Amino acid sequence: MKNLAFPLLLATGLLSVPALAQTTGPVGLPSSTDYPSASRGGDSRNTGFGIKGGFTASNFRGDDKKNYAEEGIYNTFHAGVYTQYGFNDKFSIQPELLYSRQGFAGNNGLPNLQGQTINGAYDTRLDYIQVPVLLVYNFLDNVSVHVGPQVSLLTKVRENGVERKIANDDNKYSYAYNSLDYGLAAGLEARIGPARVGGRYVAGFNEIIKDQDLSKTGSKAISDIKNGAFQVYVGIGFNR
Predict the structure, then answer these.
(1) Which of 40, 167, 217, 231 is the most exposed place for a label (fewest CB within 10 A)?
(2) Model-level pTM?
(3) SS in 3 state form for the chain?
(4) What CATH class has 2-239?
């Protein structure tokens, strides 16, 4: 439960943003009704581009999660750029290009890189290039909900600080990593002038581990685990 305390605290804070935006927002900040929609030939407050980055609390889920002992949250970061096109004052589409570190941490009794069975702390870092494409709905003047698919390309893997190949072409390891992940992202965002602050949960649907050789892992299945990450970010937007 303690591993969930920080993400739940962050989520609670984000849920309080709509009330703050309505009651204590700075005087004079533009609202969605202050911008003519793109469909009427004007500049929409939902059309523009920007930069963003923030904190990531990463973990994994799946049927084989039970074969990892004392698994915990892997705290890291993400950063990137986005562009947004507004269909009207309420709806827009927002593609993003992000660099995101993810992974998992804990304690297990699985073989290490030398094939020796160990029982100690471990961490696995997974570096992804991510492309979410999000539908944005402004349900309040300065607060929106984001939801959409995401595709991720795995670019680097580090196990206990040691970099290893994503593939397992030489059969050195007991398993390989999937280079592609896909999933769903959903969250909330608030605007204060050009600034943005938000949070989202990203669930990966593809397995992290592939081509596992059970003869090298003591018959412990670890292939059915998938990415899960809670992201909190800040950004700066520029309206067109």
Answers:
(1) 40
(2) 0.77
(3) CHHHHHHHHHHHHHHCHHHHHHHCCCCCCCCHHHCCCHHHCCCCCCCEEEEEEEEEEEEEECHHHHHCEEEECEEEEEEEEEEEEECCCCEEEEEEEEEEEEEEEEEECCECCCCCECCEEEEEEEEEEEEEEEEEEEEECCEEEEEEEEEEEEEEEEECCEEECCCCCCCCCCCEECCEEEEEEEEEEEEECCEEEEEEEEEEEEECEECCCHHHCCCCCCCCCEEEEEEEEEEEEEEC
(4) mainly beta
